[in-house]
Design a protein that fits this description.
By secondary structure, the protein is mainly β. It contains one helix and seven strands. A six-stranded antiparallel barrel has the order 2-3-4-7-6-5. The chain starts with 11 loop residues before the first strand and ends with a helix.
Length: about 120
Amino acid sequence: MPVTERRKEQRVEANLAVTVTGGPSEAQGKALNISANGIYFESPYYLEPLTKVRLALVVPDADPRKKVLPVTCDGVVVRVEPEERNPAIAQYRVAIFFTLVPENSRKTLDRYIRSRLSS
């Protein structure tokens, strides 16, 4: 049986630095992919599903003089891989659904996603 895609927004691969607060401690991670609705990233910490978090990341700007632009948003953890905390695991893969993205961050994120889709 074919799998039906449930995502409403296009997702693009990303290699962006991410800082997450709201879990066991501030986590520095790396985005694997991103959309207007959420982000999938690697974290050194296990984040419990349904945890509310705040994210800060920087995305490259289309204008090379500006180099990077900040994006901040709030979200909730919807998935963690592996699903259980394990001291032997060095990196967890975490999916976060955005619950609040300020307008200036939304515009920056939308421009970044469009630029990745067109390249």
